[in-house]
Amino acid sequence: MSSKKSTKKNQKNKKQKNNKKWRTILTILVFIGLFAFAGFYIHSYPVADDIKLVATQPKALKAKKKVAEKDIWGYPFAKCYTKKIKYLSGQRYGQTDICRRTYPKKSYFHDGWDFGWSEVGNKAAVLAVHPGTVKKIAYVQGLDYYVWVVSDDGYVEIYQEAFLNRSDISVKVGQKLKLGQKIGRLTDSHLHLGITKTSKDYITKKGHPYKNYYKNNGTWLNPMTIITTSLEKQAEVKEYNQKADSYNIKATSYNKNLAAKKAKLKAEERKHLYHYVKGFIK
């Protein structure tokens, strides 16, 4: 009888030991699983989208363009901007159908551009076509009163045959002019605009700015070509700057949102387990 009791007790003890063993194994397996999951979880952080976000660079803003002063020109009359004017041959620069000089030989060369009062308006304001300083105001037969302007970039602008009286001129010698500033008012039949450069031989022995007016030798330049080329360039720069402004507004908004997302991600990372154990797992 005592032998049977002893056997049962041994079996019970053996069963308890086995149960304890399996509980230990199970506990170890659970811990291993938890550590494996934690390791995988930590190693897989941050996720690909977060890594991509951190690596994303803000958009660079576009710088605005400027037109150099030497390239800033405009029309001498406001109506030239709004009215399509058909200029006659005699008004245009270069070879024309009007004889300008007969002795010692005929010349049909026109050294500037004429703007008639019938096209731009009688007593219309004569405007500076380029920034510069008034060098001289004088009267000479054939030119009437003229305004001689010298620009810092080496260009020279002559406004002549437009002013019947000195009182029709609003500027003074030594005065600095801005583009579009009023020089005077048109009281004669037309304005003759001549453009040359300080490096050219354009001053007569008597000190008037019209030497070589009959020669197509490069002394006098085409005013309309200079003005229209400048206006096209100004329009291109204006269009570019408008697009740049629009782009910069969108880019600034994008950069602001990107910075906010990165700040939020950084704040979340500080709360994440990865933040505390990343030093041990690398």
UniProtKB/TrEMBL annotation:
All residue ranges annotated as the M23ase beta-sheet core domain in the record: 109-199
Gene3D superfamilies membership: Glucose Permease (Domain IIA)
Segments traversing the membrane: 21-42
Protein keywords: Coiled coil, Membrane, Transmembrane, Transmembrane helix
Coiled coil: 237-271
Pfam (any one): Peptidase_M23
GO molecular function annotations of the record: metalloendopeptidase activity
Protein name stated in the entry: Peptidase, M23 family
Organism of provenance: Lactobacillus equicursoris 66c
